[in-house]
Amino acid sequence: MKTPATPSKLLAFATLLIAACALATGAEAQNGLKKADAWPNRPVRILVGFPGGSTPDMAARTLAEPLAKALGQPVIIENKVGASGNIAADQVAKANDDHTLGVVINGNLTSAKQLYPRLPYDPAKDFTPLSLLATAPLMLVAPASLPGGAEFFSAARQAGGHWNYGSVGNGSVAHLGMELIKSRVPGLQPVHVPYAGNPQVITAMIGGQIQMALIPPGVAMPHIRSGKLQAIGVTGGRSSLAPEIAPLADAGVKNVNLEVWTALIGPANLSRAAQARLAQEVPRIIHDADTRQKLFNQGWQAVGTSPDGLKSRLKDETAILGNIIQARGIKLE
């Protein structure tokens, strides 16, 4: 015959049962928290403010496939063209689904605020910088039918305002870079004509609507090698992306040391889980030899910085482009 449990034994058993339940509940809550914090838990969108075939689009698509494999979710590129990439940037700034990112160019994060008094987003407050993906110099390109080298600038001076130059949009580095060149070459007065992207700039140049433009080597070189266009010179020093093209300084235009770049950003409200995952995966992908070669073939020098690396670049370049804007008195609506 079993001895009846004493009240003290019953109390001890109840205490152990409550503790076990608490531990189980805590473990379930912890597991639930981990699942809730997991990122991503659905497809990731990357918005690009320029058309397919543009240099930002090519960089974004090069990143997308390996990033999808790393994250275990589809990475979808969406081209939201217009306003020099500012439409796409604004949509990224206003995204609240924690799965929308953007690939942008210099101007969206550096010069846009200084150029557009009614810009719908604040580059300094509305984004989470994630990584500087890649950089490239700019190449001054002209139709092959025009004179080359220093003679090109003599012909351009004589043409005055009858010649036009194209860019990927108001406030882009290609726009501001041409204004810098105009300040370096007395008498140079081509009129700015903005386009949706570099493919449209190329088409307009071949068609005779514009006579010059600053274009990344990856877009320009196929047309130069085919004989449809010519390179007058490249910004900065001689570049490994186009080693056969002399610097602009050789044609008499010095101190034009600008680059274009493309960066990955998220909205300011991007979760810490997303930031941490992307800070881990994106630089690893960009530093991969296969990715670096693909970017190089497109005319990009792979970089793949940390978020702090992109923040540093933004600070430096905002000052540089701000000086050009102030010196040339550029304001846009």
TrEMBL record:
PANTHER family: BLR1237 PROTEIN (PTHR42928:SF5), TRICARBOXYLATE-BINDING PROTEIN (PTHR42928). It comes from Polaromonas jejuensis. It comes from the Bacteria. InterPro entries: BUG, Bug_dom1. Residues 1-29 form the signal peptide. Keywords: Signal. Belongs to the UPF0065 (bug) family. This is Bug family tripartite tricarboxylate transporter substrate binding protein. Pfam families: TctC (PF03401).
